[in-house]
Description:
This protein is of the alpha+beta class. The protein has a single domain, classed as Nucleoside Triphosphate Pyrophosphohydrolase (Alpha-Beta Complex). Helix content is 28%, strand content 20%. The chain contains 10 helices and 13 strands. Strands 1-11-12-7-10 form a 5-stranded mixed sheet, with helices on both faces. A 5-stranded mixed sheet has the order 2-6-3-5-4. β11 and β12 form a beta hairpin. The radius of gyration is 20 Å and the shape is globular. It comes from Gymnodraco acuticeps (Antarctic dragonfish). GO terms for molecular function: GDP-mannose hydrolase activity; metal ion binding. This is Uridine diphosphate glucose pyrophosphatase NUDT22. InterPro entries: NUDIX_hydrolase-like_dom_sf (IPR015797), NUDIX_hydrolase_dom (IPR000086), NUDT22/NUDT9-like (IPR055295).
Amino acid sequence: MTDSEVSLLLHCAAWRGLLQAQVQVELSERFNRQTDPAVDRHIEEVWTERVSKEPWLFNGSKFRLHSFCLSSSSVSHPACTPPPHTPSSDRAEEQQGDTPHSRQRMEKSCITHSLHDAAQSSLDRRSRAVNQVESADSVSALSPASSTFSKNADDPEPLLTLRLGLTCYKDYLGTNWSCRVAELRKRGEAEFGDALALLAQPLGVGGVLCTADGQVVLIRRSQKVAEAGGLLDIPGGHPEPKVVCAWLGQAVCEEQISVDMMQQRPVVSELFSSVCAEIRDEVNIPLSSLGEPVLMGIALNHTSAGRPSAEFYVSCSLTSDEVRKLYWKGGAEAHESTDIVFLGRTEVLQLDISSPLWAELCPSAKGAVLLYQTVRPDSARGQRQPDAQPIASEKRSR
Length: 398
């Protein structure tokens, strides 16, 4: 099934999804957006105009997804097919300061993709486990490509490393959503060898929330949200750097947040816990009723120039009737949606582009549904799917 609005950058079907202990992050200013005075002036102009029309908008620091590394464990020779209109590139590692010799050494032990075009106690327990994972051994950067992973039964548990910098919501609206985005992509490719170098690319999160009676929760977006007003979505938002700062006892304003204030383990914890916080705030479900988030993969929203979103599966101990009652009582972010809709698991698994409901889904929900159909995270965990592999393809989130 193909939909021009969305594609999958990565899925974790080989492992039925990844738990927090199987994910780590690498943080660096190298992974920030490339700045340019003319682009920055344009961002300010776009922001001023948007806020004048939508005064409820506010800026905030976000994590920027630059690239990812995925271990070769248990993955058997996947082929990754990019969309036909997108050129591939193998230069994404160059902007990280790698020399040809260092890249040659790296390629002996890992596979390189270019992809630039293309509750609370369990949370704490997973956070403590993050430091125990081993280093990933295959590299991906954001653009389409084909690749092969070797399979070795003696490999350590699979591990995903996300390479993150910082960006902000204002930069997102002024780059990914800019009328000049095509020009920004061309400049990024020409000047930095990376079509996404000048784009904000904030990492979103979303949750496929499944109730105790097998219903998947969708919410209808308010017309007062910045994107996809009136369409059906899953609960979601962003992991917040300011939350990490608060955990670390750093009292700073959004504009002062920098990469060197971040720490790896708290960032991973925020990535996983933020999806639960969004479910709590948007659907009004207490954290104690939510299961451990399972990362299904990363989807790309092409209506916003390929913005990435990490999509999770989250189980709920409440029934759909109980969830409906809590929703209508209203949560902290009740203003972001106007209705709640329930779909059976089977119906979600059968959704495709020919389904009438598909047209009502916003791109982030489409990406999450595609990942849910691919990963099947609510199947028996620990049983690997022999024909499932991580993928890397173009077309881009929330």
